[in-house]
Amino acid sequence: MAAEPLMLQEHRRLSRRFFGQLAAGGALGMLLPWQARAAELPPECAAACESFLKQLEYLTPQEEFGNVSRGTPRPYDLPEEKKQEVGLTPESWRLEVVSDPDDPADIEQPLTVEAGTAIDWDELMKMAKQHAVSFPKIMTCNNGGRPLGMGIWEGVPLREIVWRTRPQQNLRRVFYNGFHNDDPKQLFRSSLPIGRVLEDPFDLPPVILCYKLNGQLLNGERGGPVRMVVPEAYGFKSVKWLQRIVLSNLFHANDTYASGNNDVDSGMKTFAHSLLKPEKIKAGQPIPITGYAQVGISGLKKVQTLLLPKSTEWPQDDPYYTQADWTDAHLLDPPKTWGGGLPDDRLPDKVHGFDPATGRPQNWPMRMTMAHWATVLPGLPAGEYTLHSRSIDANGYAQPMPRPFRKSGRNVIEETPVQIVE
Ligand SMILES: Nc1nc2c(c(=O)[nH]1)N[C@H]1C(S)=C(S)[C@@H](COP(=O)(O)O)O[C@H]1N2
Ligand SMILES: [Mo]
Questions:
Q1: What is the extent of the structural domain holding 402?
Q2: Which of 5, 232, 342, 367 has the most other CB atoms within 10 Å of its CB?
């Protein structure tokens, strides 16, 4: 039998501790038999949750991230010599930083391969010694229902490289793209306002040129040797196989992702989803449920669940169930171990949002990361039910508000079946 993914073990451990406390307090004597079987529970859920299981080890090993990569062929599938030739290995990697010919920014020192001024790996590592930063971030595709993975990303702030070009004026936007088989049709480009690059608002970490994920060099699939990582944004801003930065006086976005109707200025949303729930449970038995939340730019105050008979009609005048009787779930403590392939499970020395003395998070849950939750709902008569879960962000907005629009990132209220049997 395959070993249980570490993320699920950690999630079970955290949630068992939670359920154990409840049982010890006498509140849930009936839960004990279930708890005793916790290690094998619930197989039907394990199958349903398969794609999540890897994320349950708090950090996701980089090989196990969900992968969103364009390119024919994918850059990381090129033969080794070809990678060497096109700059997809650390030794051959070069980063150019130039002015936009269409909307020129006034820079004194473009960084180009031709002039021998492009940034290479040794130079980046030199900069890293002085400027490297690490931060936790959940990677999520704007269009995906589930996060791709949770990582600690390490890199050099993009602004350090922008300053090297000695910009003078007429600089309003930074575009960047990765290797794309030299085919304009395969170009994948994102962009940011210069202000976001030079300054970090609201305690955010900087935008980085990232070369490590969970303490290990970034692999080809994750965008190595170097990718952009934008802390507060959906995945499409974090361009992989980064090779070119264009400094522009254009005043608006021109991201590849704008085609496809995506909202390219959207910050990550907060949402909740269940992970382990009995698909079938006996009438009258307490119903244990665990899950995770993505903590977006607006933070996370709490997670709530609502278990309704399947026959319940969706209220026409209250499509987000704002008037329903939601039950608060319990947010679980930060994990004791981090997983994700971190060598010796040791976090890098200085991680944004972590206390350097204790190595523990300063606040919990942290924005732009994942939090786990658990709850036990009272037993119900036999029948078919629908479980809903939702988050309330730190500003008090219940999911899917304040921005319910699908193309600015998914955060629909979860709907999943639960069967209660005699
Ligand atoms: N060069 C390049 N960068 C890219 C992409 C791509 O296709 N090409 N996909 C983007 C999208 S849409 C997402 S969601 C993230 C996914 O990151 P991951 O594959 O490391 O999980 O990478 C982004 N960076
Ligand atoms: Mo994406």
A1: 6-56+269-421
A2: 367
